[in-house]
Amino acid sequence: MSSLDSLPQDQRAVLQLVLSRGRSYDQIAQLLKINPSSVRERAHTALSALGPETEVSEENRGRIADYLLGQLSEPSEVDEARSLLAHSPGERAWARVVASELAPLAGGALPEIPTEAGAPQPAAPAPAPAVAASAPAAADGGQPAGSEGEAADRRRRSSRLGGIIVLAIAVIVIAGVVVYVLTKNNNSSPKHQAAASASSTTSTPAASGSSTTSSGSSSTTPAKVVAQINLTPPHTGSKAVGIAEVLDEGASQGVAIVAQNVPPNSKKPPNAYAVWLYNSPTDAKILGFVNPGVGSNGRLSTAGALPSDAKHYKNLIITVETNAKPKTPGTIILQGTLTGL
C-alpha cells in the first residue's frame, strides 16, 4: 500500500487534475494529446497502489476507481457501482481505504460509499486542495514489461509524460493571470498590446527589462484555452521541456508558459530569458523577459497578452539574452509551433 507522496509523478498528477481541477479523463487526454485509455490506466494503477492488498478483482477495482473519481457519466453506471459497494464487503472496505487516501487531493466531498444496508455514508471529508509536487517524474507504476529493455522504455515514457502532466497543472494554475493582463491591455494604447511591454532602462536584462509576468486582481471573464504548444529544445542534449497554452478572452488573446529543467539565470555575466514570436532571426518580435528569473530548481513560468499581429508568426521561442534591448533573438532554448490564433 502506497501513499500519495510515493506515487509516480504522472499518476499523482492525473489524480490532481481529476480531483482538484475537476477534469475528466477525456479532457486530460485532450490537454496532453494522449489516449484517454492511458489516462484511465494511470488513475486505476494509482488507486490500486493506494488501496490495501485485496482479492477484489481488477475489473471491480477499476469500476470503483471510476466511481470515486467521478468518471462515470451514465446514471446506470453509477447505480451499478453503488450496488457493488453495498453488497460486497470486500469491495466496500477497499473503497473506504482508497477514499481516505484520496481526501487530501479532493476539491470537495468524494462520492458517497453505501453501507451494507444500502444507506449512503459520506466518504472522508476533503481538506483544501494540495499542489502537485515538482519533484522529477518517477517510473510508471503500471504492469511490468516483458523484458528489462521494455521496462526501461516504459520508465522513460512515464517520466516524460509525468513531466508534461505536471507542467500542464502549472499552466492551469498561472493561466488566470492572463485574464488580468488581457483586461488591462484592452484598456491600453496599441503600443502596450505586447506581453509585459514596459521597456527596461537598465543595461542588463537580468536586472529588470520587459516581463511577461503580471499580477493583480483578475477579471470575472474566464480565459478559454484554445491551443496547447509543446515546447522542446532545438538540441537533443538539453533536458528542458515546456508547455505553452494560448488563451482567448474574447477581444484579446494571451499565452501562459511553464517549463522545467531550464538552466538557472547567471549573474556574472547577467542574462535573462525572453519570449519571442518568431519566423526567422530578422522576422521576430519579443514579447518580454521572464521575470522573476529561473533559479536553481530550473522552473520557468510566465504569462502575458499576445499582440494583434501574432498570426504573422509561425513559432513561439524562449531564448537566453544578455542585452537589455535585443534586436534579434539570442540562443534558443525552447521552441514550438504557434497555433490557436
Task: Describe this entry's structure for a reader.
There is one protein chain. This protein is of the alpha+beta class and 341 residues long. The protein has 2 domains: 4-119, no CATH class; 173-337, Immunoglobulin-like (Sandwich), CATH 2.60.40. The chain is 33% helix and 19% strand. It has helices spanning 9-19, 25-32, 36-50, 58-68, 75-87, 89-102, 148-186, and strands spanning 113-114, 120-121, 224-231, 241-248, 253-260, 272-280, 283-289, 300-305, 315-321, 331-337. The strands form 3 sheets. The chain has a 4-stranded antiparallel β-sheet with strand order 3-4-5-8. The chain has a 4-stranded antiparallel β-sheet with strand order 7-6-9-10, with no helix packed on it. α1 runs parallel beside α7 (148-186), α3 (36-50) crosses α4 and α5 crosses α6 (89-102).
List segments where confidence is low: pLDDT < 50 over at least 5 consecutive residues. Answer: 117-147, 172-221
Distance between the termini: 47 Å
> What is the CATH C level class of the largest domain, in words?
Mainly Beta
Largest sheet: 4 strands, antiparallel
The number of distinct helices, counting runs of at least 4 residues, comes to 7
Q: Number of domains in the coordinates? A: 2
| Secondary-structure element series | HHHHHHEEHEEEEEEEE
Number of DSSP-assigned strands? 10
